[in-house]
Please model this.
Amino acid sequence: MSNKVYINSVAHISMQQPLGQAWMTEPIEATEPYTRAIDPEFRQWLNPLKSRRWGKVLKRALVTSLAALKGAGLATPQAVITGTGLGCIENTEKMIDALIAEGEDASQPTHFMQSTHNTIGSLIAIYTHCHGYNATYSHNGISYDSALLDAFMQIQSGAIDNALVGCNDELTPAAYDLLKQAGLAGRQGQATMSEGSVAMVLSSNPAGALCEVESVDLYYDTPLAGKIGAPQLLLTGSNGIDSQYRFLQATGLPTRSYKRLFGESYAASGLGTMAAACMLQAGHCGNALIVNIDGHSASLIRLKR
Amino acid sequence: MKDNRIVITGMGVMSAIGNNAGECLDALRHGRTGIGPMRYLDSVHHEFPVGEVKLTCEHMATRLAALIPATGIDLGSYPRTSLMGAIAASEAMRSAKLSTTDKAALLSGTTVGGMDKSERYFADAHHNPEHSKYIATHSCGASTEAIAQCFPGQFHLATTISTACSSALNTIIVGAELLKSGRASVVVAGGSESLTRFHLNGFKSLMILDHEPCRPFDATRAGLNLGEGAAYLVLETESHALARGIEPLAVLSGTGNRCDAFHQTASSDNGEGAYQAMSRALATAGLEPADIDYVNAHGTGTPNNDASECEALKRVFGTSVPPFSSTKSFTGHTTSASGSIEAAFCVMALRHQFLPVNLNWHAPMDNGLKPVVDMEPSREIVNVQCNAFGFGGNDSSIIISKYQGHEQ
Model:
C-alpha cells in the first residue's frame, strides 16, 4: 500500500506573530542576537488552573497542537509524534540549579517529571485522550524531520490515517548565555537565536489540504549534491554564516533561509516546512524543497501543491 | 510475503550483569544479580542499591579505542552513555558480521544523553572554557552522533528516540518500519543510558526508589533500583540476511506502540496503554495470546507499575498468563536502554531455551500473578513478548520468535 500524504493544517508560535500567517505579509525583523517567541493568550486555549504548573514550552506545544487539530477538524489524532532538540530546558535548568544550590537533598518532582523529552508528547496525548502511537524524537536540528518521517512512513503504508506532528524547542536566557559562551551565538551576520513550536496534522485525506508531502529523506554523512532537482521554491536552514549550503549555488536556484524568518533553533526546520506549506497553499509556487543540514545529519523534504 | 520478515542478526549488550552479551547470558543462567552498592556514580545517595556497569569511564574508553576503526576521537571526553553505546553497538555489528559496505541506519534511544558530564560541569561552564565543551556533548542527538562517529562510513541515517523507559524498544519498532518501507536494508537499533545524579535525584523525589534490592511483582515490593547500560540489535529483512550468508538469531514478529494517556509518571489502574500495546503486538504478529511462551515484563518493582502491568497481563491473557518475569532484579531499571537490553535477553532465552527468573520474589501481590522462579521451561519457547513502559504513558511491546529456517 502506498497512500499519498498531505498536510491538512498548521499552527505555530515563534518570533513571528503567533497562530497565523502574518509572517508572510508583515514579517518581524530580528534586531537582537536573542529573540524570544511571541506567545498568544494562553487563557483562550488552556484552562488556567490546569496549566498553571506548565512551563512555556508545554503550553506552546499544547496550544499549537489544539490549533492544528481544530484547523483539520480532528478531535483526536491516531498518532502523536513530536520532535524536540533540547526538551524542556526550563525544567531541566530548575533541577540542575536546585542540585547545585541545595546539593542532593533537593526535591523537585514536578520539574523532574516535566524535564523528560517526551513530556510534551505525553501531555498532548492526555489532553486529547489519544491512546494511539506516540513517539518523541530528540536529535538536534533534525528532530522535526525525524518525527515527520515516522508519520510519513506510517500514513504511506496505511498503518494510520492521520497523525499530529509537532516540534517544540525553547531558549531560556541561561541557555542562550551558554551558547554565547561557547561561541555559538551572537556572531556577526548570524541569524538571531530563537525558539518555537509548530504543529501540523498530516493525513491521507487531500480535502482542504495545504499541500502534499511528496517525500521525506533523512541522511547521515551523505553529500546532497545531485539530489536537489529543480524545485520552484528552495528553502534552507542556513544561519547566514555557515558554509554547508554553498554547494546549492551550483544549481543556480534562488534559495531563501527559513532562519531569517524564524531564527535559529532546533525547531526551525518544522517552522520552515510550515512556511513552505503555507506558501504553496497561497499559490506562490507549485512545489518546494526544504534542505536542512545540521552537522553530520541532513534532511530533504519535498512538498507539492 | 515471507521474504519480508524482519530478523535479528546481531546483538551487543552492556549492563550490570556483564560487559558483553556472553557475560550477561552467563549471569542470567546462574541467577547472578548485578545490583549492589554504588561504586561508580559520584553521588551522596549510597543508600540506594544500583545496577552499575562494572567499568569506569576510563576503562570503557580504553576498551572502545581497541574496538573501533575510527582514530583521533577524544574518547576520554566522551560521556558515559556514548561510551557504553559505542561498545554495545560494536559488539552488535561484529556479531552480525556487518561491514561498511552494508550501510545501516542507526536508531538510538536515550534520555540523559551526555548529562553525566554536563551535570558535573554545568556550574562553572560559564567561566571555564574547558568545561563548556560538555555543553556540546549534552544533547540526545549529540549522544547518538558520538556513537555513530566511532564507525565512519557505516551509517547513512542516524536519529534518536526519547520516550523515557520505552526509548530503546521504540527504536526497534521504528527500525522495522524503515526496513519494510525500503528506506534501509540494515538497522542498528537500541539505546544507552548512564546513571546520573540528575535522574537518581529525580527518581528519589518521586519516592519510587527502593532502599533494598528490588522485588518485582512481590507483595513487599517498594520501588525500583536504577541501573545503566546499553544494547543494540541488528535488524534486516530475512532475504537480505540470507543473501549476506548470515543465519538470523530470531524473528521480530510483532510490534505495538500505544499511549496510556493517563498521567505523566503513574500508570493507569487498568493498564490501558500496556494492554493496547501488547494486543497490537500480537495482532501485527498474527499470533494468539496462547502462542506466547514467555513475557519479559517491564516489572520495575514499583507498587504502581507492577499492579498496572498485572492487570494488563490478565486482560491480554485471561486466565492463562504465560510464564513471565522481570529481569530488573538482575540489572536494575536501565531506563531508556531497558527495551533493547531486555529484548537481547529475550533473544538469549529463545536461543538457549531457558526462562530468565524473577529474582527476589517470595509472595504474590494482592490480585497479583506469580512470575517465573524456575529457569527450566515446561514447553519449547517459540514466541517471547517483551514490554517497556515509559513515563508519559509511552507503552511499547514487541514479540520475538525462534528462527526456524527460511519459510518458502
